[in-house]
Amino acid sequence: MKKASLVAAFAASFSISSVFPCLAAEGALADEARTAEERLLGAADEEARFFDLQPFTREIGSTVVVSTSLDQALAESGVPAATMLEALRALSATVNLARDVKRGDRLYVRYEQAFTAEGAPIGVGRVMWAEVTLASRGPVAVHRFRTRDKVERLWFTNGLSATPPSMRMPLDAISVSSGFGLRADPFDQPPPLAATGKSAPMGGPLRSKPLPPGLPTGGISGNGGTTNMATPLGASLGLAPYGGFGSAAPKAAPRAALFMHEGIDLVAPSGTPVYAAADGVVVGAAPNGRYGNWIRIEHGGKLATVYGHLMAFAPGIEPGEAVVRGELIGFVGSTGRSTGAHLHFEVLDNGKPVNPINHPELKAMQLRGLDMDRFKKQVARALEERTRESKVAATGL
Ligand SMILES: [Zn+2]
Prior knowledge:
The protein is 27% helix and 27% strand.
């Protein structure tokens, strides 16, 4: 995979001369590129020579026995420091390395390293598998794996993510009153005698959408639309499994307008401290229409969080200020379009609202179903491979 992309990148650099002939006229580098390109198009042995010049990647496995201390073992392993750091950070999610690793315990790190054609390492090797075998507990291992949702990271062999979530929930105690997805607008109920159900919206039709006919149970949100999913985390957060529109909302108010709830509502008494979900920069802290007192924080990369209905802002929280994960930013209130004290919390991924409850940055992820099956197979293959390699090493073949 990595090798293919490197080769592609390398080959692409040679095609510059044909795409930009003006560049080819300038400088020895471009001439060299053209010569290389001609070689590539030439005879088979020249093609082979071209591939000899390619950067390559290799997986390297290293086993060390702790004979005096963990530091000694790390030094003897020969694993580059930055790579070893990734391995130890992942393992330390469940192993207290300083306390639990004893003499006689074993550490195994397998990593993928890119090299130049001459064999010089390029960049930091990626940990594929890290394992510490403790006399007290047996092996504890993490393996790199990519889920069908394209979440690539290190996972413990029981399927739990070794990467702690980068975000935290904005309140210490979490009680969700309204989940992410379509819901009946509490401000938008039809008056008791309004037979048509054409209600007069308070606060504007900003997000109110009539229920499309034949809406499938489960919603139409881009995120699968399943509010209050029956996940273990959802259950632990007190979320009831989502029942669909056939049951709750339409019965209570047959033609109530539904709207997309782009965040979650966390119930808490007025004045409850609200904390930044992650490190970032405050880009907005002001009264903002239906959000009431509102804060928006950008977290670098593509993530942002939004906090609504605050009673007050914490001192110093204003646009341009940097905040750290867990820093006090304000207090729960009921300002704006709100029926009671609660925090409206949104997570935006590339500007698009996503369900905070399911977001990998907020959740200790656990592999399930098909992902777990594939992961188990990958781990089994890795173990077989290592056994084969150690046999080859033992017989000196
Ligand atoms: Zn809300």
